[in-house]
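Hi V.,

You were right to ask for the full record rather than a summary. Here it is.
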Amino acid sequence: MIGQNPALPREMVLASAGSGKTYHLSSRLIGLLANGVSPEAIWASTFTRKAAAEILERVLLRLARGVLDERAARELAKGAWMGPEPEPGADFLNPDQCGRLLSDLVYSLHRANIGTLDSFFVQVATTFARELGLSPAWKLVEGPEEDRMRSDGLEAVLNQEDSAVLAELVRIMAKGDVHRGVHGRLLEQVEELLTTQREIGNDVDDAWDLHFPSAESDGVFSKETIHKRCHELADALESVHVPLNKNGTPNSGWQKELPRLGGAVRAGNWKDVFALGLGKKMVETGEVVSAAEVVYQRHTPEADLASLMDGVVDIARAALARDLTRQAGALERLANWYREAFEETQRGKGAYRFGDITHLLRTFTFLDRTDSLYFRLDARIRHLLLDEFQDTSLAQWEVLEPVVRELLAGDQGERAAVVVADPKQSIYGWRGARPSLVPFVQERYGLKQEKLEQSWRSGPVILDAVRDTFSGLEANAVVQEMDGGPSVAREWLQDLYRQDSAHPGQEGFVELTVGPRAEGTGAVQPALLDHAAGLIGELHAREPRASIGVLVRTNKVVSYLIAALRKLGGPASGEGGTPLTDAAPVNALLALLRLADHPG
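Predicted structure:
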């Protein structure tokens, strides 16, 4: 044992990109090794294989530099020291000690637990395959084989004879724009249902019951009663006295509004009732108010009209509750059918996705018995290093928590826990990432909060621009127009802390440019992207040897922008997972194959 620290770290480290997260994690890992901890007793988990490789590479390189350079060894000792003051001396880490640690680590690489959460879950599932109901030869699948399994499950659903449930499937599919054909859209919908059903679990009763205040006993929910009441209200609305202007003439706005309201109520078209006119005034605050409290066309509805509109609200609630209850029941049956069909296909093929493995692990309780887990893994984990924790999903945390709970139950001098997160940078919402787990875990396990407040990547000009842009986010005019925007901005700003450049004299330049106004809600905005391509082209012409990085939100935008840049004559390449099918030549060949395969 090289050193002995009286207390090992238990910390929640908030760190933005470029603030030294990998350096901090590698320092903690080296510090544990220097205190005599064997590599297999440390579990270092990241979100991607690339990040895991970077941590291991950084540990090996820093130890190797410490072997060759005594000054590098002293710097390494300073970063890896986890004890109190005074700082370590030559007896903690010197070139000889670095060489011994490096040699031991290299010989033990096959036992080092440095990888992704997914890889750890797969390792656990392999050791508990029999308990999980997995065949000995089970495998992970993705791509075409995964698509075939999903299609088989969907086909089993479509073969059901319940036309009401199938109609509901088509209805939910039609709520969005269909870009990739009916089959692709159906697969997306049933996958969302499968995810929802798994999150609910099998031990929750009446999970799909919407629990509306029921008036079913007096017939409010019957279709006939609702239809009759709608007609009565429509007739009454159309016969209401129109308010008069100051000159005694009927108000033209009310003359148009009352017949419109009557027609929408008679048809049961509640979207039209409350999207315009008097109905909109009643709901525009986010809560339904009585018609007697609103002003429309400079007039407040008289008592009889206010009473009628309040009656419209009541019947709308009853009608919508009836429809939503029926839809929820159909969706529950649909979710169960697809889950059963898909899981039967999985068992038959012995093929699973990473998300399926996570789901299987969270449904069993054997992880509470860590002795059994460590026996089968042939290693006893005693120290925990978690990176990118903001991208952990609730399902993943449910699998992890028994292990974390057991680790942190020991004395602080025996167990270390270092969790690194940046709640502002959670980009895996589509995989169920829950940034809210960061403060929850910190409080639950009493982790000391640390902040890496120096940026080693950006100069002060860049950081000042970031601060100026986001510090007033809550009051931003665009955010103000978003539904729930200000409250989301307030919550987001709680995690925004000051970050200073580690290189205060570093040069930098920032320019914020407003492009053409967006048209529609699509990801690809041709006018805006052509404008951006022009700016990039100008920058390339001024600095032809410089590398220019362009960040966008979706792969579709990457494809369009690359084509636009190449059209301008600039060298452009795409990185970050752009699908092959987004390439124009591939699309042309696929179109040719579809044409050749067409039965006509």
